[in-house]
Amino acid sequence: MPLSKAKSNWYNNLSDFDFVDDFTYNNSPSLLTADTRNAGTSNGQTGVNDPPRSGLYTLATGTNAAGGAALGGNIGYNFSGWARLSFSANFRIVTLADGTNSYRIFTGFNSSYDSTTAPTIRSAGLFYDNNNVNWQAYTYNSSTGTITDTGVAAVADGSYNTFLTRVNGTTNVQFFINGVLVATNTTNLPSVQVCPQIQLQKTAGTTSRNIISDWIRFAGSGNSRTLGVSA
Hints:
Jelly Rolls, 0% helix, 9-stranded antiparallel beta sheet, 16 strands, 7-stranded antiparallel beta sheet
């Protein structure tokens, strides 16, 4: 079933699913679980008025130099079990990392849903920190990685941008920013379970940094399971 044909935010027939969270229910994400470490925060933002968006969710580091926040799924998925798995997030960066107040952003699939777990053990996703102007496309397996520069710079201009990691079984991982294919990795794809995740992790400084998300989407197709007969 093509992802563009999905009719419901909670479509699932075992072999295919398409979940969307628009954050219209305050302080309780319906798809992924909030995770915070070292005084980071993860919460709804009903006070933010930003039409036409109908729901916003903020991840913030807090002032702790190691503060982190994430939305993640603590149930893992094996790429080999699916023809396709996709995770996308639409968000804006409020302030770029600058070396004094340093942080990283990762969105995609990671070995852990914890906000403080670096995506360098098993992962497939898009990565940003102050050491790189551009977004980096990551695939890691057993701590061995393939990193591809997307050529797309991170911006903090008030715009909401969409970051999509599309896993095509065990063949490759495609990375899209605002609908444009910016990288394809064919090596070091995770061989065991990983979790969908978006995380923000502080690495230095005492000024809080945050990102604001409008929605997230997690979809899969081509699993061998089937419902069989109708209920």
